[in-house]
Amino acid sequence: MNKMPEALNKCSARQAFLASCAAKTRLLHTPVSDPYEVSGHPNPAGLGDAGPFSQTGSWGQSSVLFPTLETYRQADGCGRASYGGAEYGVVQTPEAEAVCKKIAALHNGHGAVICPSGLAAIATTLDALAPKAVLIPDCVYGPMLRLLNRRRIKPFRYPAGASATEFRAVLEKASSEYSQGQELLVYLEAPGSGTFEIPDIEGIAAIAKNAELRTVMDNTWASHIRFLPLEHGIDIVIQATTKYEGGYGDTPSGVVIAKDPQDLQHIADELRATGNGAVAPTTCSRLYHRLDSTEERLNQHAETAQRLMDWFLTQPFTAGVLSPALETSPYHERFQYYFGKGNGLFSVIFQPDIPANKVEAFADALNLFWIAESWGGHLSLVLPVHAKREVTSMPDGYVLRFHAGLEDYQDLLRDLEQAAQDTLLTAPAGTQ
Ligand SMILES: *Cc1c(COP(=O)(O)O)cnc(C)c1O
């Protein structure tokens, strides 16, 4: 593989930095300090002797065997094998059923299904409910817009941090075009992707219920630890379990949890019809156990994020920090009411007069924060926020979103310090 020279330099700088880090940080980063060695994947299958073992699931084989035609016919009729799982081992394997049962119980839902990604869980839900138009928050997870476009479902955007009144105004407009209840769906995601606004969730759910519209909430930010949407009037919950539930970036998956048995049946039928529920059994098994430690990990992510935000808030290049966990956030009251505690995510707005290339040099100069999509795993990450807003304004200035991983926070602070010294805090030429 060809390494670009600047990437080579970065690898040795990173290794040198790691040598000075606490054992906890080195444990997380050392195996992947050179992404060329692992093709950019932080959880390579072949790490030592554990590799082959972790790839062997007990199930996850397409053919499920039956001793007689009659036992097969019974299983085919109801879609389930007498051993547990489906009669054909592609969707809803026994591992999938186990993790779905656990997740549904954590949410007090009627049941759950699992899909191979968070986005697949969103797509499956939309396809099962087949609305003609969807009310979405302006801050919605970007790929959702692409999906609505492909499905020719009309989006009606409401403000990211909408009050009940603001939501009602958008609903009135949508209802004048789509008057049949089944045609319209109310979709929520909070706190919003990249900028973390929080709308009046209970207010919106109550208005939707009154109008006899179904509500679906993307609860990925919170996970079941911080928020249980079904207990606040929401009908269907989606969670990208790729993120915090799995916690190590090795559980690409998404779950859909429903309160109403009929809704769940529609969604399960959709999966059986499309085959889009094929999730590796190893993923399900990992998820099944990681659910037990989600809360501890989330608490640590949140504590570290708070320390990093505190640091950013004292820096001259910071114009603002976006996180509803901050007392200064306009959404702090709703945050306390619904979520109570934060997670590892926050965004930093840089002073508008700082050129973009300086902010990008800062991101590139970091050793422990990898430039990568997704979040919720053990490694700290950073990425620019390019939100396409229509009814909510974006702040002036470059915005970087950070995810605080499980490293020792003092190492992360030291890393931010050194990157800022080399890029953002250097005095312009001629001012000394
Ligand atoms: C990441 C994410 C998803 C999609 O999950 P994938 O597993 O990456 O497809 C959906 N919603 C939100 C809010 C997310 O952050």
Automatic annotation (TrEMBL):
GO terms for biological process: L-cysteine catabolic process to pyruvate; transsulfuration. Gene3D superfamilies: Aspartate Aminotransferase, domain 1, Type I PLP-dependent aspartate aminotransferase-like (Major domain). It catalyses: L,L-cystathionine + H2O = L-homocysteine + pyruvate + NH4(+). The keyword Lyase applies. GO terms for molecular function: cysteine-S-conjugate beta-lyase activity; pyridoxal phosphate binding. The modification N6-(pyridoxal phosphate)lysine is found at residue 243. Its cofactor is pyridoxal 5'-phosphate. Keywords: Lyase, Pyridoxal phosphate. InterPro entries: Cys/Met-Metab_PyrdxlP-dep_enz (IPR000277), Cys_b_lyase_bac (IPR006233), PyrdxlP-dep_Trfase (IPR015424), PyrdxlP-dep_Trfase_major (IPR015421), PyrdxlP-dep_Trfase_small (IPR015422). PANTHER family: CYSTATHIONINE BETA-LYASE-RELATED. Belongs to the trans-sulfuration enzymes family. This is Cystathionine beta-lyase.
